[in-house]
Each structure stands twice: as C-alpha cells, then as structure tokens.
Amino acid sequence: MTLDNILAGLFPNGSKIEVTGAIIAGKATLADGKPVHVLGITQGQDLGVDEAIELAGHVIEIIGSQDRAPILVLVDSASQRMSRRDELLGLSEYLSHLAKALLLAEAEGHRTVGLLYGGSAAGAFIATALATGTLVALPGAHPAVMDLPSMARVTKLPIELLKAKAEATPVFAPGLDNMVRTGGIQIVWDETAPLAPQLAAVLDRPIGRDNRGRLGAERGGRRKAADIADRVVAMATSASRDLRRG
Predict the structure, then answer these.
(1) Dihedral angle computed from the Cα positions of residues 64, 135, 234 and 232, in that order, rounded to the nearest 10 degrees
(2) What is the dihedral of CA 214, 218, 223, 226, to 10 degrees?
(3) Contact of 75 with 128, CB cutoff 8 Å
(4) What is the pLDDT of residues 167-193, one digit of tens each?
(5) How far is CA 106 from CA 90, 112, 171, in A?
(6) One-letter-per-residue 3-state SS of the chain
(7) Helices 148-155 & 159-168, crossing angle to 10 degrees?
C-alpha cells in the first residue's frame, strides 16, 4: 500500500499531514471524531541526526500541548544513516533522544502506536517503531534489527552458522514473521479490510505494562525473556521492601 492509500484508509474524516523530505508530521481526525498526532519517516530513507532531532522535536511539542491525544508513528525507513558526519555528531545520542521522547510521551498519557508499512532496520527501527508502546504492521513490511551479513561482521561468526540459528531462533532472523514471533510486533493488520477500525481497536486498549516479552513467550519466539524480567522485578521489589524495613 502507498502512503496516500494508508492515510486515506486510516483517516476517512480527514487529516492535515505534511510530508517534507522523509519526515511525516501533522494531525488527523479518528473515526470517533477525536484527534490523533501523526509522525514518521517514509520513502525508505535513512534516519540521521537531522531527521531524529526533527521527529523528537515534534514529540516534545506534542507532550507540551498536554492534549494527551494518541501519537501514530508511520515507519518506512532504511537503517540509521551511517555517514561520517552523522557519526561524528553523535548519531547514537540523537536516536536515543528520539526513543526517550516517545517513551516519555507514553508516560505522559499519549498512547503511542507504531505502524510499520515498509522497511526499517537497526537503530532506525529501534528509535521509531520499537520505541512506541504498541507496534503493528501491514503485510509486506520487512523489519530487521540487524541483517545477517552485518551480524556476521560484528560477531565474527560464519554466516552459515547464523543462518542455521536464524532458522531455529527468531531473534536471530530478520523479517516480519520473525518479529511477530518475538512479540516485537503485536499484530499484522488485514490490508484488505478498512484500516480505521483496526487502528481504533488498538487505541481502545488501555495503556498498560509492556507485554512484548510475554507475547514472545506465548508465540515461541522468546522463551525466557518474560520470566527473567518477572524475576528481576520480584527481586527488586523484595530488596526495596527490605530497605524500607531496615
């Protein structure tokens, strides 16, 4: 689906959304008449320091408005921009700033929903799609935290070994199905059905505890993460109680 088709399907009541370069920003009206902020990166572009700081600025402005309207983040990007300029300017800090801005928005009462409709990889994927409270996707999306050739270069492991691990363990493997199995993507929407009701169904769910680890366990993609996280929380809670008693 094209970006124009997606926006028309999501917001039949109209929208005021601008696409400037690779950046999407604006506001729309949901089917129930309530407002929603719309941000994102499109056209399969890299996410560099300029795009990251611009998106983070929009998020901070939204938080400052105190309207608590949801934020929809549309994602169709490449990886982070691996240029000398971006690295020298501290690209990792810019990406972290963007991710933290989205996390703060959720904490301040703005439901954040990522919609992955194209590609995304590595730092760009983590700082946009995975930083939202709920991530959904359309068929044909192709996420990758890291592709296997890059993983081979970083880990110094043979790519044949990584391919074998990817077949058995979804966390090693790129692709939409694997990201769904790990719990990173909550649901893949039906592109043949109206999009507005599918967005409404996601927004109707209350903000709650991050359940991606539990989804990954249920789907067989991350068998241990949720249990380990629960044990850490239990140990921290117990230690806090002991400190208060002492």
Answers:
(1) -100
(2) 10
(3) yes
(4) 777 776 778 888 888 888 999 999 999
(5) 25, 6, 26
(6) CCHHHHHHHHCCCCEEEEEECCEEEEEEECCCCCEEEEEEEEEEEEECHHHHHHHHHHHHHHHHHCCCCCEEEEEEEEEECCCHHHHHCCHHHHHHHHHHHHHHHHHCCCCEEEEECCEEEHHHHHHCCCCCCEEEECCCCEEECCCHHHHHHHHCCCHHHHHHHHHHCHHHCCCHHHHHHCCCCCEECCCCCCHHHHHHHHHCCCCCCCCHHHHHHHHCCCCCHHHHHHHHHHHHHHHHHHHHHC
(7) 120
Is residue 70 within 8 Å of 113, Cβ to Cβ? Answer: yes
Interacting residues of 69 by C-beta distance below 8 A, sequence separation 6+? 34, 35, 36, 37, 62, 110
At position 137, the amino acid (one-letter code) is A
pLDDT tens figures, 191-221:
999 999 999 999 988 776 778 888 888 888 7
Query: How far is residue 40's CA from residue 113's CA, in Å, rounded to a whole number?
Result: 11
Predicted TM-score of the model (pTM):
0.87
CB-based contacts of 14, cutoff 8 Å, min separation 6? 28, 29
- Rounded Cα–Cα distance for residues 73 and 245 (Å): 44
Q: What are phi and psi of 178, to 5 degrees?
A: -70, -40
Q: Could you give the CA distance from residue 99 to residue 105 in angstroms, rounded to a whole number? A: 10
pLDDT above 80 (res 233): yes
Q: Tell me how far apart the alpha carbons of residues 80 and 125 are, in angstroms, rounded to a whole number.
A: 8
- Token readout for 209 is 């505890």
91 with 56: CB under 8 angstroms? no
Only one residue has tokens 């499109």, namely: 42
